Amino acid sequence: MTTSSSRRTFLKSGAGAVIAGGALLKTDLVAAAQAPASFPEATGTFQPAETNVPQAQYPRVDARSRRVQFRIDAPQARQVQVMVGGGGGETPRMNLVKQSDGSWTLTTPPIVEGFHYYPVYIDGFESNDPGSRTFFGEGRDMSGIEIPSPLASDSFYRMRDVPHGQVREHYYFSGVTQEWRRIIVYTPPGYDQEPHRRYPVLYLQHGAGEDETGWTKQGRANVILDNLIAGGEAKPMIIVMAYGYAKFPGVAAPDLSRLRSGSPAAFFAAMQVYTGAFADDLTKVVVPLVDKAYRTIRDRDHRAMAGLSMGGFQTFEVTLNHLDMFSYIGGFSGAAFVLGNTRFDPKTAYHGVFADPAAFARRVHLLWLGAGTNEMPMIHRGLLAFQRDLVAAHIQHVFYQSPGTAHEWLTWRRDLNDFAPRLFRAA
Amino acid sequence: MTTSSSRRTFLKSGAGAVIAGGALLKTDLVAAAQAPASFPEATGTFQPAETNVPQAQYPRVDARSRRVQFRIDAPQARQVQVMVGGGGGETPRMNLVKQSDGSWTLTTPPIVEGFHYYPVYIDGFESNDPGSRTFFGEGRDMSGIEIPSPLASDSFYRMRDVPHGQVREHYYFSGVTQEWRRIIVYTPPGYDQEPHRRYPVLYLQHGAGEDETGWTKQGRANVILDNLIAGGEAKPMIIVMAYGYAKFPGVAAPDLSRLRSGSPAAFFAAMQVYTGAFADDLTKVVVPLVDKAYRTIRDRDHRAMAGLSMGGFQTFEVTLNHLDMFSYIGGFSGAAFVLGNTRFDPKTAYHGVFADPAAFARRVHLLWLGAGTNEMPMIHRGLLAFQRDLVAAHIQHVFYQSPGTAHEWLTWRRDLNDFAPRLFRAA
Among A82, A203, B146, B237, which residue's CB has the most CB atoms within a 10 Å radius? Predict the structure, then answer.
């Protein structure tokens, strides 16, 4: 009884059996109904990953070696592969080996610490691992796995017994996009208990293919801030996470399937359509509604914005075109001029806001840039080049490099942990 | 270029191309990169399901006929099936047909309206549909699809332009289970704007295999209450949704794989272990922390509890053993005595709380029971029998039947829509 179909049959008949017993109608324990598999190649202390669904025994991680054991029940499949990585280069697909019980198993080489999206391929079909929770990335709900970091300094994103803020889902109708949208709002510990206190606000954006849930689910922004605030390292603040895709109504959505083999410029233009209304939605709708619905301090000295990857680019676009609204700026593995064929020119960029470094430093309390050292060279070197240009132009800024991590969430957690304590110190 | 592997290659190379263009590093638009498929058998106006990921063209629903078109890109698979239903009986797997472009397609017969979890089988492997969002059910993150209801009366769960409450994630450490847990808390519109107003509380529980997110994601409890409150039909209230699985620390977790072929009694006993600490966690930890962290009215007249399926059973266990804390009780497709081999005896059940019908009616302001007419007979008939027993014993109660729906979320949305307006009228 090891086939997928028998699992479902088990669920149904198991449910029926339990109904006869008197109470429980389904079970969340299906994933636990797995026989032990053989991992002859493995030594180590493998434990279910913290990103597993309840009771799922696989995938398992050996925290010391950072190797992972996968186990997929797919007796009728001819090929099962997994792709999990976070290295700087192309991540290869790894083959699982079929066992006599119909399951497929693999013990991987050491995996980079941090959070990774990963697909499982069943006869080439990109699937999820039923043992793992899903996280919205690459435009869909993907399996994710957390590889514990061996660094004591990485405990900053672990839940501790400190006062906790709340994560709120807040729906709004956008007059800009003419649709219902949602922001996720972190309110700091004590927000409800001090009903007259007002707080500064950090607007924090996800990357391409992700959504407004990314920073709390994958990024643990709430846990990071809870810990920083408890330690007195960051000022209590509200964090607002908006959805970075926003299209003007009536604008035709380009058919991306046609653009597969098209030019990069056409693809970029299409993406601009899908994000074209973001700056307006954020500055004309979200900021005013946040200032109305939450006890914010409503001036530029108490408003920051940061984002990762695509969100970093958007942060530069929004803040440097609205310095009347924002005075703290963070680009996490993404910012204008980092990646591109357009070289930073301090005299002309963003209508000349950089042209006078002293004036810029007075106006922008923090310009913060970061990247992982194992990011693809285009990003890492691009950011280094941008930083050199900033140094050459005498633009005051902070530059941070996350050791050993790639274009992934551990980089961005570390970014936030460095960035947030620097906020709202000027006013 | 239609294989799964090419999709991933596209993502990578597409991302590279966009990087060269200057900004966006990934894309959520992969799912849109699908060529139109042939559905020769279909007539109707098929639109992407509202549960799809952004830009995904499939699955598609014809709202009039309630038929669904599925399209799965799995050129190397030998068999692709889908199981989507909500009928009263066993839901069959339906075969998709392979097209010349390597995709597999199907237009289904009419599907029951409402929300359905559904798996896709790739060569027998139970997978998700990459076009659909995932929802936590059956113990994992499953694809879900919303089939619009043709009934105008079902608009109650649609987002309207009314004031909206908030949905909050609230973490707490449970001294009962010795672990970090989470409640989801709905605060009604105006909660933050009226900082001295206090509210009654409904504790609302998910079913087996689900978690504390079910009632807002699948159930749309927040939208339902926003609409009821805006229409003056329900009193503004706080809703608290806890996680129904709670195990005492140190108690060995039974290995359910051994119980597959075991007795129903053994399986039931195992489930009791996984939920054994729930009543204590709710009454000793959650209720006190809610009364501390939120502006509640802290007495039994302003405390209700309801739950679906397993959560209904838990509601009876908690409320009838703690009538000092609760005075409104709802069982949605689940309650003690509904299903079982134990017949309801009003003289002895729950320490005799039903023995004096007049006293019970004074003490319990509302006893509410509901089920869908298309639920499996064991539940539907079980509930009818329980209701007959209540009538025979002169126990005051409300009985509601959801027409045409099964053991699924549309039943429970309708339940909540009938139940919530009856709350907090006695005090």
Answer: A203
